[in-house]
Amino acid sequence: MITQTQLTLPALGRGFHIVTDDIVKALPNLPDQGILHLFMKHTSAGLCINENADPTVLEDFETLFNHLVPENFPNLKHTIEGPDDMPAHVKSVLCGDSVSIPITDGRLNLGTWQGIYYCEFRNQRHSRKIIATIYS
Amino acid sequence: MITQTQLTLPALGRGFHIVTDDIVKALPNLPDQGILHLFMKHTSAGLCINENADPTVLEDFETLFNHLVPENFPNLKHTIEGPDDMPAHVKSVLCGDSVSIPITDGRLNLGTWQGIYYCEFRNQRHSRKIIATIYS
Amino acid sequence: MITQTQLTLPALGRGFHIVTDDIVKALPNLPDQGILHLFMKHTSAGLCINENADPTVLEDFETLFNHLVPENFPNLKHTIEGPDDMPAHVKSVLCGDSVSIPITDGRLNLGTWQGIYYCEFRNQRHSRKIIATIYS
């Protein structure tokens, strides 16, 4: 069985944000067993799974992603929307635009230290839309 | 229900290419609701989703991926197939070898600016095979 | 139909390891057609798919991932667990925490040169848990 819902994330601004609770609250009842697929409908933000406990991890992710894909890199052509735009596209590919999480016993089967990250790579705040598909 | 098809991408040469239309044309009729999973059967090319409008984005992706994983990096061992080979393997992992896209109302539920990218990381042209699995 | 199993990977130590056979042996019988989803329940290790033949590829992956996300990067805050910890979190996002592989004719439909990689980014050996979900 397939169940699909569109969610809107809060406009949290540039950075890495843990949104596990926001997403779980917005979902319908989970089946006993299955998969949750979350898909970001945007090309300069991402979804991934990582450490859910220490807020400095989120800050270090921002630091290291900025190191990986620097702004104002020489010879870029797609610069009309500002220096954060093209790096945001590349970061979203590095991070990924979707996550698939097993559902077991009616709950997301995440590890103890795992949370769902919404990664915003643009300076300007945006409301981002996600399609949640549950198959069971 | 599961439907599976093997597709062959055109040999487009090194770079980032938007292949949304090629893929949609090669698929059977889409179900009302479900997921499309596309899987690249190769280790030096990738699939991802990004900006579908400005061709300079594709060029900047090439520039920034070459910056991320430089050719002729010191002390690499797997060099027999040329300086583009080992970077191509790493780029394919960074990019990802598959995408999963929600299907809603019988169509791919991509955002306005989203297209499917075929990312070729080798200098030599190759015909790349993809397995498309639709579950509904 | 959904079938779910929890697997434990051998504690192989830091590096990139091909675990295709370990995983296939631990799975129940595969259906004729479907998808295998493997999900790493940890935030400093990853799963991906790449070259399955030359062991030096695994060493070069380690070299290039260390180049991508250096240890002792200035101004990191999450350093209490050692210099390999925060880079491990970022590497696990770059690599990805899950893979989805088509199943065709009762077998994983991997390309000739594709194998499943378990990527361990911490110095200390860990036993890593994976949830395998087969849908058909």
From TrEMBL, chains A, B, C:
InterPro entries: UPF0047_YjbQ-like, YjbQ-like_sf. It comes from the Bacteria. Coiled coil: none annotated. Gene3D superfamilies: YjbQ-like (2.60.120.460). Pfam families: YjbQ. PROSITE patterns: UPF0047. Belongs to the UPF0047 family. This is Secondary thiamine-phosphate synthase enzyme YjbQ.
